[in-house]
Amino acid sequence: MKKIKFIYNPNSGDKKIVYKLDNIISKFQDNGYTVVPYRVSKNNTMERGLEDINDNYEYILVAGGDGSIDRLVNFMKKNNIDLPIAILPTGTANDFANVLKIPLDINLAIDKIINSKPTNIDLGIINEDYFVNIASSGMFTDVSQRVDENLKNSIGRVSYIIKGIEDALRLRKFSVHVKSKELEYEGDMYLILILNGRTAGNINLAHYAMLDDGYLDVIIFKAMPIPKTIPLLLDIIKGAPIDKYNEIIYFKTDDLYIDCKENIVTDIDGERGPDFPLHIKCDKEGIKILGIE
After folding, report:
1. Structural domain boundaries in the chain
2. Which of 66, 170, 237, 241 is the most exposed place for a label (fewest CB within 10 A)?
């Protein structure tokens, strides 16, 4: 039988994954797979669960949100594990799974995984770390880091929205220097996003992003008068193309430097990122994914 490693976080999202384990394992077994499960916890890290990975495994199945996928990819890339991964989106925010059009319904996701072949997609690299969907800094970007875990598990994405509204009520600008071969910007901003996929917070922002083009999409929200800010943000949430605004810079690159002397954090896929200065690159076709269109 074909062998897969199944990494799952029982506390991810609404915690309902624990009630679906038997169904998940039985569906894969019925299709000729031997499933080797590993439960992630405070004392049992994901890295420990991957210590026995070798060429006998077909792929790694991970159940969780963006943070779980990010940690898995980072461990794999830094330890030269060249296996496809498959995703069961069970997190609070499943931005990356949505970008990949992986169904939130577990049974549908499994069907797509079993009936698919690996597809190569790009990754982002920020200093020494990898990201699958987004790296960011400025306002709103550390919302997921500041949300209480119990609140996040109880009301899900609404907790992110609450924190985001709190931030919007006290806009703060930051001085930043961004440099690439395509563009250089030195000035004030509210927010900078570097996207591999198209969405941040499940809002479609990088309209021209492609997961296999060898480029990352950079969006800089320049500091602007408050009366302009709210209508602009509302338009973007509704789906307006961001490249029509003079207050927003949008471009593609595969190599980017960012520096900021102010005390702000960075975020990669919902987790704390490295300190400035940042060197960001695209790792073209850096990972193989199952179950995507």
Report:
1. 2-115, 129-284
2. 170
Q: Which are the contacts of 246, defined by CB distance < 8 A and separation ≥ 6? A: none
In this predicted model, what pLDDT tens digit does every residue of 36-75 receive, in sequence order? 999 999 899 999 999 999 999 999 999 998 989 999 999 9
Task: Answer for the pair 76, 280: CB distance below 8 angstroms, yes or no.
Answer: no
Q: pLDDT tens digits for 128-167?
A: 999 999 999 987 664 444 444 443 444 344 333 334 444 5
Q: Fill in the DSSP letter of residue 168.
A: H
Strands 184-195 and 216-222, bridge-based pairing: antiparallel
- Which of helix, strand or coil describes residue 155? helix
The yes/no answer on whether domain 129-284 falls in CATH 2.40.50.1020 is no
d(CA 181, CA 253): 8
> In angstroms, rounded to a whole number, what is the distance separating the alpha carbons of residues 87 and 219?
27
Q: Give CATH for domain 2-115.
A: 3.40.50.10330
Q: What angle do CA 236, 240, 246 make, to 5 degrees?
A: 80
How buried is residue 30: exposed, middle or buried, by Cβ count under 10 Å (0-12/13-18/19+)? exposed
Fill in the amino acid letter for 93: A
For all residues of the chain together, what is the average pLDDT? Answer: 87
Residue 7 sits at the vertex; the CA angle it makes with 107 and 133, to the nearest 5 degrees, is 80
What's this model's pTM, rounded to 2 decimal places? 0.88
Alpha-carbon torsion, ordered 181, 187, 188, 189, to 10 deg: -10
Largest CA distance in the chain: 62
Check: CB of residue 111 under 8 Å from CB of residue 28.
no
The count of other CB atoms within 10 Å of the CB of residue 143 is: 20
164's CB contacts (< 8 A; 6+ apart) are 140, 143, 201
For residue 121, give both structure tokens.
């997609």
